[in-house]
Amino acid sequence: FRDRDCYVVFVSMNTKYSLSFWRNTPTRYGGLGQVDIPLLSDCNFTLSRDYGVFEEKERICLRSSILIDEQMIV
Predict the structure, then answer these.
(1) Is the pLDDT score of 28 beyond 90?
(2) Whole-angstrom Cα distance, residue 1 to residue 4?
(3) What are phi and psi of 27, to 5 degrees?
(4) Cβ contacts of residue 35 below 8 Å, gap of 6+?
(5) How far is 14 from 25, CA to CA, in rounded Å?
(6) What DSSP state is assigned to residue 19?
């Protein structure tokens, strides 16, 4: 991705502590393992709401892939 000036980030409604634990747990034990992708916590659902992937009634975030260009256009 970086060869094409593209960057991948992972956004979750989990806390930064949960994401750290997930990253530090080996895949053989159900963790993510040491990946080279930033893991971002969205506990207050700000990003999820901004990008229209938060379901207010159920208080869940929909799985989504969002592409944003260099002008910050989705």
Answers:
(1) yes
(2) 5
(3) -60, -30
(4) 23
(5) 15
(6) H
